[in-house]
Amino acid sequence: MNVLLTCSGQRVDIVRAFRAAIADAGHEGRVLVGDAGEASPTRFEADGVVDLPMVDDPGYAEAVVVACAAEGVRALLPLTDLDPVTLATIAPRLGDAGTEVFLPDPDVALGCQDKWECHLMLQRHGLPSPPTWLAGSVDRGELPYPMLLKPRLGFAARHIYRAAAPDELAFFEGYSPLESVYQLALDGTEFSIDCLGDLEGKALGAIPRAMMQAKGGEQVKGETLDDPQLVELAVRTIEALGLRGPSTVQCFRRDGVIQGITDINTRFGGGFPLPLAAGGAYPELIVRMAAGERPASRVGRHRAGVVMTRYLDETILERTPDGLRVVPDGR
User: How far is 15 from 118, CA to CA, in rounded Å?
Assistant: First the structure.
C-alpha cells in the first residue's frame, strides 16, 4: 500500500500520519514524497523520494504517471494548490493502472482554484458565495466596500489586499502582478471545515474548526467545534461538487447566517493535525479506500473542543558528497 504525496514541502505531519495509517489499516507499504527542494523536511521523514520535475514543466504529468507505475503507488494526493488540476486530469490513466487519485474531476479542481470560476460554480450549485466581479469589469466606484482584491489563481494567501475605498482598490490592482477578482470582504467570523469525500464524492467527514490564530495564512492555533450548521454546509458542498478525497471549505458566518464560502482547497488544510486529533482518521480512510474498502461515513462523529497550538521544530542536515543526510540527534 504505497502512497505518493506530491509537493510535500514542510508537511511532515501528513507524512507521519500516513505512515501510521498504513499500519492501522493492516497493510504494509511506504509513504513516498515528491518535492523539488533538496532540503524539504518531508524528504527526510518519508520512506522514499520520487524525483519529479517542477510542476510547471511540460513533462510533469507524464513523470507522475511513470513514477506511480514504477513504485506501485495505490494512492496519490497533492499537498499544495500547485498541481491538483494536473493530477485530476491524469486520474483516469492512473486509475486504469491501479492508482487512486483523491481529487475531484478536473473542472471542479480548476473551479476550486480559480476564484472567478469558484464563484460561478458555487452559484450554479446553490451554494453561498460572496459578491464577486472580475477585476476591471465594473466601475470601482460602484462597488460596496470594504473589498478584497484576490488573484484568480492564488496560492498561500499571496497578493490578497483589503481596500476601504475605490482609490485603494485601484492602487492594489496596479500593484498586484496577477489577474485578479474583486470580492466583498465579509464580516462575521471565519471558519474552516476539514472534509473528506469518498471515491463517489459522498461525505465521509466534515470537522469544523475555529481560527484562534494564524500567521502568514497558516493556522497556528485552533479548536474543533460541535456545529451542525457548518457540518451541513460542508456535506452539501462535498456532494454537490463531488469532492473526492480531502478538502477544506472556508466560510464566514454572522448572527447565525452563512455569509459565503470564500475558499475551497482540494487538499488537506493547514490545520490538518486538528481533525486528525479529533478522530477524523482521514489518512486511514484514504488507505482503506485505496485498498478497495468502502468505509462508512464518520460525519458528526468527531470530538469537539480539541485545541491545537503549534511551535517550530527542525531537522538538522549535513551536506556530504552523496547529498544531504540527517544528522543523528542534530549533532
Answer: 29
- Per-residue pLDDT band for 156 (boundaries 50, 70, 90) equals low
- The count of other CB atoms within 10 Å of the CB of residue 39 is 11
The answer to whether 272 touches 209, Cβ cutoff 8 Å, is no
The single-letter DSSP state of residue 188 is S
C-alpha span between 222 and 236 (Å, rounded):
24
Q: Which fold has domain 131-184?
A: Dna Ligase; domain 1 (3.30.1490)
Per CATH, the number for 2-112+188-309 is 3.30.470.20
CA dist., res. 321 & res. 39, Å (int): 15
CB neighbours (10 Å) of residue 46?
25
pLDDT in tens, 159-199: 899 999 999 999 999 999 999 999 999 999 999 999 999 99
Residues in contact with 188: Cβ distance below 8 Å, sequence separation at least 6, in sequence order? 252, 253, 254, 255, 259
Cα–Cα distance for residue pair 302/306, rounded to 1 Å = 10
User: How is the chain split into domains, by residue range?
Assistant: 2-112+188-309, 131-184
